[in-house]
Design a protein that fits this description.
The complex is a heterodimer. Chain A is α/β, with parallel strands linked by helices. Chain A has helices at residues 59-66, 99-109, 114-128, 143-156, 173-188, 224-242, and strands spanning 5-19, 30-44, 48-52, 74-80, 83-86, 161-165, 192-196, 209-214, 217-222, 248-250, 260-268, 272-273, 276-278, 283-291, 297-304, 310-315, 328-336, 345-354, 358-372. In chain A, a hairpin with a 5-residue loop joins strand 15 and strand 16. The N and C termini of chain A lie far apart (79 Å). In chain A, 35% of the residues are buried. In chain B, helix 3 crosses helix 4 (80-107), helix 3 crosses helix 6 and helix 4 (80-107) packs across helix 10. The chains are: A alpha/beta, B mainly alpha.
């Protein structure tokens, strides 16, 4: 073994015994579920590794084994260095304790001494940007503040290996930029980062290695081409689903907290052509929400192309409509402008926020829709023989020379 | 490149040696968790630590009124409040360890599922918290001793051993309950039950002469009855020394060790069952 190895995994398998309340005909009340099967790989120091795969493919289990939280059923894992397992942001935070106390508590749970934490304390607080509130109990923090402080702690303590479980995809855009910044700093310092994600939009992150998991096995290992393949795979799956009427599919989501409940959602007034939703007619996205308290609520939908480029966003945060802030039921209808979407497949992301920027729900691929334009104007003779992402309505004036 | 420590995870059951090494490595956390628990408990209460004194004080008044005054239970030369408090010390300490230890792992499930640390740290830190609370109750006892003019015996030098017996009784139950709870969760429901009725099988409120002569020996088989008697024996030289206390201590030790052994085998699986 050379000493540039950060993690070595040999023939790792992990099974869970599921307990049922009923016995089957053989008198067994447990069944075995293989979360990981015979996985082997090696990660070098300083690598930025992405672990991708659909839900239930074993990504999170792998991370738990790497973090030492759960034991392998067979096989071995060798870890060289100090591991930060950030499987959830703010793990170990106690709501009753102040931000300051939580910084120390959190650091100590991760194996650092008070002294080590003390030397980094100012940096941690500075990055978190909540200096004013550091002596307040964290139960009074907003999600954003909580997130910043928790992330800041992990980012400033000296670990060798960082395990992230989709935590980098939460938070507002500014936060995401900052985390990207921190990530590259950690890498520069020689840290090894392992990032689990089923979120495709993170694909633009520059992974040096990508592990693609499928039903518990390591399907492929490589660089970003694996990522692209995974995306193509996904795309094909989407394509199949939305290529037959009604040409759209919603993710089943349920959302309810103490303040807001999502009652219903769907598409209205669509007109269907034989190969997709008609783009000459506008169609309406509607949401029924119930505010259980007086709370300032914003709903938004972002539209993406299949390579996960954000095309445009529509939100209820508009001066033209009444504010959604008083207790009661609301029906919110968005009309997607006609002649905007092109002959393509789009995915939409749903997000809810409280006030203007406190994100409380983010559902990627909330809606998939196939649009047909049946209009050759848009497709005319472009050299790459592809339709544009959007069919933007435009005005044009043509004048002949003698009329100018 | 500097040598970093290597950690190996495999399906092998770790040795007891490793178990103790891990606890040593993470010993700091015992303190951290105990501090956290105390801080949280008293952070936003008005009279803070005063509650720890007020609670037994109120209980003491009630017990004294009903058992000492109304029922007139005899306590052989010791004033009833002193008798009850000296009995409650050991019992409450034990009950705190068992309750918070057995439920502590469930309570910290959110942590255990996200970060690695030896789970046995939790009952150990709860023991530390219990010790702090015991210390505060001891202050109350001192006040009572002064008020009632009760003198202490030289046998108080054995108090650390009594405390050890007391602690081992608590932790022994915690480890066994944790082991059995991985098989059947119902075991946890037994805990409050055990604490509720167990106190009546120990001479906390009554003197053992309240029992008919031929049934007195039954109490001797209950280690916690031993502990309660031992507290009074070492503080006030109350009652005669019984060798069965020593025998029971070793039996409990044996259960404690075997509990540890099985707990160590189960500890890594605890996360999967949470």
């Amino acid at each position: 073994m050379d000493n540039s190895t950060a993690i070595r995994v040999n023939n790792l398998s992990k099974s869970y015994h599921l307990r049922h309340s009923m016995e089957d005909e053989n008198g067994n009340s447990t069944s075995e579920l293989w979360a990981l099967r015979d996985v082997s790989f090696e990660i070098k120091k300083g690598e930025h590794v992405g672990i991708i795969g659909p839900n239930g493919s074993g990504k999170s289990t792998l991370l738990k084994v790497l973090a030492g939280i759960t034991k392998p059923s067979s096989g071995e894992v060798h870890i060289y260095g100090r591991v930060a397992s950030i499987l959830d942001i703010g793990t170990g935070f106690h709501p009753e304790l102040s931000g300051r106390e939580n910084v120390f508590l959190n650091g100590q749970i991760h194996g650092f001494s008070r002294k080590e934490i003390q030397t980094k304390f100012d940096d941690i607080v500075a990055f978190s940007g909540i200096k004013k509130f550091i002596d307040e109990p964290v139960k009074n923090y907003s999600n954003g503040m909580y997130l910043r402080l928790a992330f800041s702690i992990m980012a400033h303590l000296d670990f060798d290996i960082y395990l992230f479980d989709e935590v980098l995809s939460v938070g507002d855009a500014e936060f995401q930029l900052e985390t990207r910044d921190i990530t590259s700093k950690l890498l520069k310092k020689g840290g090894t980062i392992i990032n689990v994600s089923h979120v495709l939009s993170e694909s633009r992150v520059d992974y040096s290695k990508v592990l693609f998991f499928k039903t518990g096995s390591l399907e492929k290992i490589g660089t970003t081409e694996v990522l692209n393949e995974y995306q193509r795979d996904n795309y094909n799956k989407f394509f199949e689903i939305v290529s037959k009427p009604p040409f759209y599919v919603f993710k089943q989501i349920q959302f309810k907290n103490s303040e807001i409940e999502l009652i219903n959602y769907g598409i209205k007034e669509e007109s269907v052509l034989e190969d997709g939703l008609c783009s000459f007619q506008s169609f309406k996205l509607f949401f029924e929400v119930h505010l259980l308290e007086d709370v300032s609520f914003t709903i938004g939908v972002g539209f993406f192309d299949i390579s996960n480029n954000l095309l445009f966003i529509i939100t209820s945060l508009s001066k033209k409509v009444q504010a959604i802030e008083k207790k009661g039921k609301y029906l919110i209808e968005f009309a997607i402008p006609k002649s905007l979407l092109n002959n393509r497949i789009y995915s939409a992301e749903l997000f809810f926020s409280k006030g203007a920027d406190e994100l409380i729900l983010r559902e990627e691929d909330f809606l998939l829709v196939k649009v047909s334009d049946r209009n050759l104007v848009n497709r005319i003779l472009h050299p790459i023989k592809d339709t544009a992402m959007l069919a933007v309505p435009f005005e044009i004036i043509v004048r002949k020379g003698d009329e100018i | 490149m500097e040598d970093k420590e290597v950690v190996v995870y495999s399906s092998r059951t770790e040795t007891l040696g490793f178990f103790f090494r891990q606890i040593w490595k993470y010993r700091n956390l015992i303190l951290v968790f105990a501090q956290r628990d105390l801080k949280v408990k008293y952070a936003q209460t008005f009279i803070g630590l005063g509650w720890t004194v007020l609670q037994p004080l109120t209980a003491l008044f009630i017990y004294t009124f009903f058992f000492g005054f109304l029922l007139n239970w005899k306590t052989d030369g010791i004033d009833y409040p002193v008798y009850v408090l000296s009995g409650l010390l050991g019992w409450n300490y034990f009950s705190y360890i068992v309750n918070s230890g057995a439920f502590g792992i469930q309570e910290s499930a959110h942590l255990i599922k996200k970060i690695y640390f030896p789970k046995s740290i939790i009952p150990l830190s709860k023991t530390l918290t219990a010790l702090v609370e015991l210390g505060i109750s001891l202050l109350l006892l001192v006040l009572l001793l002064i008020y009632f003019g009760q003198s202490l015996s030289w046998k108080i030098i054995f108090l650390p051993l009594v405390l050890l017996y007391n602690t081992v009784c608590g932790l022994c139950l915690v480890f066994w309950i944790s082991v059995l709870a991985t098989k059947k969760r119902d075991v946890l429901h037994l805990v409050p039950f055990l604490m509720y009725f167990g106190i009546w099988f120990s001479p906390v409120f009554f003197g053992s002469d309240l029992l008919p002569e031929q049934y007195k020996f039954v109490l001797d088989f209950n280690p916690m009855a031993n502990v309660v008697e031992l507290w009074r024996w070492s503080l006030f030289d109350f009652g005669a020394f019984k060798w069965i206390w020593v025998i029971n201590f070793f039996i409990v030790m044996l259960f404690f060790m075997s509990g540890l052994y099985f707990y160590n085998r189960k500890e890594s699986k605890l996360t999967d069952y949470l």
